[in-house]
Amino acid sequence: MTGTARAHRAEPLPEPVRAQLIGAGSATVANMLLRRGLRNVIMAGVRPLAAGQQPLVGTAYTLRFIPAREDLDTLATYSRSDNLHRRAIEECPPGAVLVIDAFGSTAAASMGDMMAARLKHRGVSGVVTDGGYRDSAAVRETGLPCYQRDNAPKATPIALHPVALDEPVGCGGVAVYPGDVVLGDGDGVVVIPQDLAAEVAAEAAEAAAYEEFAALEIQRGRSLFGLFPATPESRQEYDTWVAAGRPGRE
């Protein structure tokens, strides 16, 4: 088995940052990153495994696959304790998100239900892959938030060979570096550079709160013009609304 692993470099994500990101959502967070010139942050074709599953957020711990080769990838080699796929399940830190680069392949499984159950027990926040899972119904039953491209029922060694842990990868067309912050919800999965996470979270939370105000105004019949996107005048109205205790809020 080729490839080496390095110590996970990220600090645990502070709870206020986690809460702000989940409250704001992936689409709003992507807009905050766009303001900073980061355009390619939403994974393409990666969707929630289960409708209505809990959002996931955490720092990225990565696993990279390449295409399998018959002389290296067998059930015997797959069962070894030094297999990087199996090691990823045991070494992904609690609170982190396991990001699996399957180079877009659903020819074999990036993970199955036993691995999902083990990650759930270990306190991992969730799993994201641009491949797919086998035993998807059983994976859903674990309650672990998971994202994938499509179901992939075939055994992993048929098409996938693990080569690296905790190194930069590509997933859904987005660069993911160890320690980047990954946020997944019903809209998709966004990747936030680690050093921007706290400020983006705070700005996204504020933007989400303003959108709540704007939505109330639109429900009352107000035009988008002068309201959304925000103007200096509408921001003053928003501040007044907040100071008044956010009337009309459910």
Automatic annotation (TrEMBL):
Cofactor: a divalent metal cation
Superkingdom, natural source: Bacteria
GO aspect biological process, one term: methylation
Enzyme class: lyase
Keyword Lipid metabolism: no
Keywords on record: Methyltransferase, Transferase
MF annotations from Gene Ontology: methyltransferase activity
Enzyme Commission number(s) from the entry: 4.1.1.112, 4.1.3.17
Quaternary context: Homotrimer.
Function: Catalyzes the aldol cleavage of 4-hydroxy-4-methyl-2-oxoglutarate (HMG) into 2 molecules of pyruvate. Also contains a secondary oxaloacetate (OAA) decarboxylase activity due to the common pyruvate enolate transition state formed following C-C bond cleavage in the retro-aldol and decarboxylation reactions.
Family from the record: Belongs to the class II aldolase/RraA-like family.
Protein name as it appears in the record: Putative 4-hydroxy-4-methyl-2-oxoglutarate aldolase
Organism: Streptomyces chlorus
Lineage: Bacteria, Bacillati, Actinomycetota, Actinomycetes, Kitasatosporales
